[in-house]
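Sorry, I am new here, but would you mind making up a protein's amino acid sequence and the tokens describing how it folds?
***
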Amino acid sequence: MTVLGIDPGTTRIGFGVISKVGGRLRHVDSGLLSVPHAAAAARLAATRRLLRNLIRRARPARCRCAPGRHHEQPLLPP
């Protein structure tokens, strides 16, 4: 079974692909996808294209996306 993990970001998306055969895990691929600095619609289109290509290449049986962390940013004082 192959699993794709995704760590989303605004301009960089981290990913890792592992394969489990029997009881052993094997690193298949990992890296960063760079999303261009552009208007929101263009970034979304680029993100869709990059992720679609990654999924086609990795052919995962499962995919997991890390939760966003925008809520962890400290609030600025008024």
Observations:
- The mean pLDDT is 88.
- The longest helix spans residues 40-58.
- DSSP finds one helix and four strands in the chain.
- Helices lie at 40-58.
